[in-house]
């Protein structure tokens, strides 16, 4: 089984999961675990929480972990937990990346994680980051649908 964990500073992890539920449904969102670091009771030990979560994943399962920022403490706590071919850590998470990976492994029977496929999905997600103001200045917007079909 492939499992998912979103770990972030603040409530970002829960926010991503909430958006997944809206777009992909509750059944899919329920397959995603979250750890919201440094919120509420400041005495919580985020490092221990992350270690406990990963340690309790059955050895036959694989885990894709999404974190918010490369040099942040959450990601730094996760780095020692990486296990080749079992625990995969992706940082700098964005919503297109989450949707693509969750869809890939929740809507198919594919239970093997391929590093090349992960890299390709990460590269695709990077392309989703766009300054729309700049983009719109460089795209010719057609006045109507017939112009679109005539020029293609």
Walkthrough of the structure:
With 152 residues, this protein is an alpha/beta fold. It has eight helices and four strands; from the N terminus they run βααβαβαβαααα. It has helices at 12-24, 26-29, 46-55, 73-78, 95-106, 115-127, 132-137, 145-150, and strands at 2-9, 32-37, 62-67, 87-91. A four-stranded parallel beta sheet has the order 2-1-3-4, sandwiched between helices. Helix 4 links the parallel strand 3 (62-67) and strand 4. Helix 1 crosses helix 5. The termini are far apart. The model has no long low-confidence stretch (mean pLDDT 89).
Distance between the termini: 44 Å
Q: Could you state the order of secondary-structure elements as H and E?
A: EHHEHEHEHHHH
- Major sheet: arrangement of strands: 2-1-3-4
Say how many strands there are: 4
In percent terms, what proportion of residues is strand? Answer: 15-25%
The global form is: globular
Q: What structural class is derived from the secondary structure elements?
A: alpha/beta
Taking pLDDT < 50 over at least 5 consecutive residues as the criterion, the unreliable ranges are none
Average pLDDT figure:
89
